[in-house]
Amino acid sequence: MTDPSLKRTALYDAHLALGARMVPFAGYEMPVQYKDGVLTEHRWTRDQAGLFDVSHMGQARLRGVAPLAAFEEVTPGDFIGLKPGKLRYSLLLNHKGGIIDDLMAGRPDDDGLYLVVNAGCKDRDFKWIANELAGQVKIERLEDHALLALQGPMAAAVLAGHIPAVADLDFMETTRLVAFGTDVIVSRSGYTGEDGFEISVPNAIAAEVWDLLLGDERVRPIGLGARDSLRLEAGLPLYGHDADETISPIEAGLTFAVSKRRRDAGDFPGYSRIKRELDGDLSRVRVGLRVLEGAPAREGAEITDASGAVVGKVTSGGFSPTLSTAIAMGLVPPALSLVGTPLSVIVRGKSQPVQVVAMPFIPHRYFRKS
Amino acid sequence: MFFTKDHEWIKVDGDVATVGISAYAAEQLGDVVFVEVPDLGKVLTVGDSLAVVESVKAASDVYAPVSGEVVEANGDLAAAPETVNADPEGAGWFAKLKIADASQLEGLMDLAAYDAFLASL
After folding, report:
1. With A48 labelled, which of A155, A174, A363, B6 sits at a CA distance of 20 to 30 A?
2. Strand positions, DSSP E, chain A
């Protein structure tokens, strides 16, 4: 049942050979799970190392006379201060301060900025950046590159076996180096809350690198199902759900992505709204919810206060394999956002007790040198 | 044992029918992490939602293959939802219905017909 309009990554055949269940996702046919199933894949990534094909994401180079300064016109991040070898999480903002997408931007070398954006947003993102920064930058999309993520406590030991230099990378560092006989970009980053790497390689050698990494018994392939449950436990927002064009960085709980210098300068899109929100005029904020009893609360489920009044909605939710309970994220008024606040969610007409809890739901285990 | 095109199975003992989902359906759902079974005494019309099974990713309805009143529900699934994956056509049953209209059984598939149906998917 192949939809001919769906694109395939360079690893499509590798997924089929591993018995993956393929589903349409962001215009691609992607593996939602392999033979082990979502729960086992999730736990394997937390215990060992999981290998993900994230080649559907949008990779690009942003080049220009002053690409770092230019990029600040579309984001609230400090890119002028981004040192070579560093990677930064940031947000594309519309003129009202809503989030067009979240992204990674780094300097693996001196060749402008290396960008990775969400698959479902990439066409629009790159068009937006090109339009907003017309005359200042050129975007080269890296359609001929695959992106692999190796995540988990064993990821560093596994990858260092092939690329010794990665052992020296700190969390949120990125570098271009020669490996597997060609130029690759390796970043110490990911979307699971674990230590790990994202590796950009030419499509031509993607399957070879994939097989090489899977040849290590500590590594298993992980599908999009576990990718979602892993990021949920890690408290990381999923664009299109926990963040969108109507939601600001402050509402989304991403205030850390609005740099101090940029706040003082007030020179990013949507500054007036974001300033107001930072000053306390905030109507809703993203919180973590632990479902104390009942079914998983999925996106769209209403959140109610003690009186039964609807105070917000779940933006994403599911089952936490690590905590063996349902967890969710949702937007609620700040007065109801304190850890410990008792609330309820309505699932299939039934009210279930939940409690506001700190995010991440389980501690991050990023690698930090100091 | 009879099957529906929605992959429920139904096992009839006198005027009581036990309902679950087929091994195929359990495999397709993936890891079941939560099951909601119906309340005792609930009267269901054929096609009504009888139970909800939740995998890590999504919730799916299980439909009543025949009309009837719920006379027993599998309470063990609350603590052990994974039973639906481990033994879908046995211990992973959801509920027992007192059959209201036995003629509704006639439209269901037997095992051979269900296997042929699966092969056609």
Report:
1. A174
2. 21-25, 28-33, 49-53, 58-64, 87-93, 99-106, 113-117, 137-141, 145-151, 174-179, 182-187, 196-202, 219-221, 285-291, 302-304, 310-320, 325-332, 342-347, 350-357
Q: Contact, B40 vs B64, CB < 8 A?
A: no
- Residue closest to A57 by CA, chosen among A20, A17, A16, A27: A27
Cβ separation of A321 and B58 shorter than 8 Å?
Answer: no
A98 shares contact with chain B (CB less than 8 Å):
no
Q: What is the mean pLDDT of chain A?
A: 97
Assess contact for A23 and A224: CB atoms under 8 A.
yes
A154 plus A64 within the same structural domain:
yes
The boundaries of the domain holding residue A48 are: 1-234
Among A214, A106, A116, residue whose Cα is nearest residue A170: A106
Backbone angles phi, psi at A190, to 5 degrees: 170, -170
C-alpha radius of gyration, chain B, whole number: 13
CA angle A186/A227/A117 to nearest 5° reads 50
**Chain B: residue whose CA lies nearest to A321:** B56
Hey, what's the torsion of the CAs at A194, A199, A205, A207, to 10 degrees? Answer: 20
Out of A234, A267, A301, pick the residue that ends a domain: A234
Residues A53-69 have a mean pLDDT of: 98
Q: Which structural domains are found in chain B, ordered by start? A: 2-116 (2.40.50.100)
3-state secondary structure at position A217: coil
Structural contact between residues A134 and A73, judged by C-beta atoms closer than 8 angstroms: no
List CB contacts of A93: < 8 A, sequence separation 6 or more: A74, A75, A76, A99, A100, A249, A268, A269, A270
Per-residue pLDDT tens for A31-52? 999 999 999 999 999 999 999 9
A215 and A141 fall within a common domain: yes
Judged against a pLDDT cut of 60, whether residue A337 lies above it is answered with yes
> Which residues of chain A lie closer than 8 angstroms to B55, CB-CB?
38
Query: Distance (Å, rounded) from C-alpha B64 to C-alpha B71?
Result: 13
Distance CA A91, CA A100 (A): 7
Q: Do B56 and A326 touch (CB under 8 A)?
A: no
Domain count, chain A: 2
The dihedral over CA atoms of B49, B55, B56, B57, expressed in degrees to the nearest 10, equals -60
